[in-house]
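Protocol step 4 of 6: record predicted structures for both targets in the notebook before any analysis. Target 1:
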Amino acid sequence: MMKSVLSGLAMVAVTAGVSFAGHHEEASADAAMVIGEATTNAPTLEQVLAGDHRSDKNKARDAYRNPAATLNFLGLQPDMKVAEIWPGGGWYMEVIAPYVAAKGQYIAVGFDQDSESAYVKRATEGLKNRVTENPALYGMVTITELGDGKYDIAPAGSMDMVLTFRNVHNWMNGDGMESKVFAAMYKALKPGGVLGVVEHRAKPGAEIDPKAASGYVDQDLVIKLAEDAGFQLVDTSEINANAADTKDHLKGVWTLPPSLRNGDEDRAKYEAIGESDRMTLKFLKPAIGGMAFLN
């Protein structure tokens, strides 16, 4: 077992082997670690989606989350260096990481490692376990963190693509975190790099909740946050739209699958609606210029 100490930064102790090799450059990021081992396994996206490593429960979500169409729209390629912000339970990680394992790089930008939240601890261990239990599939995965005051998510100008799925509402805490995260994503990307955002979409014209308590976020607000950070909007897609979502649920987006916060109450109704209506946005970091700054 080898542990590599990052320059000026502390490594997080893990039970898996930790090393840097090949296309995996050192990450000058908060609490960064690299786990797993190099692999030559290079499956197609279709093979990854059909893989036995994905549970039937996760595969059932494909009908709502449209991973192949979404990732193709955003332009994901197997030789890209990709950072995913707050992978949570790893639903997209188990698709993206194996796809880029042989030729590219996957960085899981996890939660604040200092958090005492039981959910955060479970999620972090879950990300590690996915890799250590199947290194031939996942290859070498870098895990960094994102939290209050921790915005070094990857080496500056190193990423071809940064992706975030259903997270913008989590950053709208009233303390300006959302702007700092967009600036951090901008900083991590190479000039010409792509930012992909999928988020629960509020009704057009609805009053904007600065804390997004319902989980729904105004699409124009998300675009403004990205543009204020220096990004250019290059395309939008209705791949993840759901016209059946009325967006007026008592418990917000969590009323719908997969959370179903109402339990058995009106369960059939909400299952028939499916997952939330979502925006799918593709941004570009300009090759020249830029406006994002992190203090």
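Target 2:
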Amino acid sequence: MESALDLTLEPVRAKREHPPMFASAVRAALSSIFWVFLTVTSLLCFPIAVLIWAITSPFDGRRRALHQFTCFWASLYTWFNPIWPVSIEGRERIRRGRTYVMVANHQSLLDILVLFRLFTHFKWVSKEEIFRVPCIGWNMSMNRYIKLRRGDKESIASMMRHSGETLERGSSLMIFPEGTRSVDGRLKTFKTGAFVLAKKHRIPLLPILIQGTSAALPKRGFILRGYHRIRVRILDEIPVESFEHLSVDELTERTHLHFEGKLEEMAAEA
């Protein structure tokens, strides 16, 4: 027989074990507003992107003007979202006019949006599926971002060739060396592609750390997870002279260890 105390505590236990329905409803509503805003602004911004592309492409082969507009477009989704305050640290470490292989850890779809907040010129290396997204993917193609079909050797070879040509033309690359988003926010093993390119074309690496996006919008979900501070930290570039004597595997492993240490430092500061 249940005691009166057990009966009294039952509603309290229920509250602890299950999130309030009101909070879940608010998250769902805010998430719907965010995705509607993304859709509407994409429909509005894409024609402007087409106009910029049409006017500037004859004399702007690297699509610098279009990329700057794309940075503005992508930044709308954090500028006007008070639950995702974004801070950029170390922006001065990006040297004007310098070509980099930029490498960043990957936790969430939000990583793409917050890295556009750098407002510096680069070309994304991104999975092929995103190029099929209406408006957003079409704009990526106009920007001459580089597509990759994961697991396809021919696509990987094509990506490496186009990436090398992009670097030789003076445009930086932005690559997630983990290859895909981390499910639990922890750093995954790095793939070697970015480091092959850096060594082959003698281009410095620029490590970029991202913190907070995994909690804000985790992998395998489209529901916003409430207020989360998002930090982007640009580290010192890794000059070619410091890794030209290393093998690709050694460079990949050392960079991974560098990321691990610096991410731990960021976590300790939070």
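Step 5 preliminary note on target 2. The chain has a mean pLDDT of 90. The longest strand covers residues 205-211.
Proceed to step 6 after PI sign-off.
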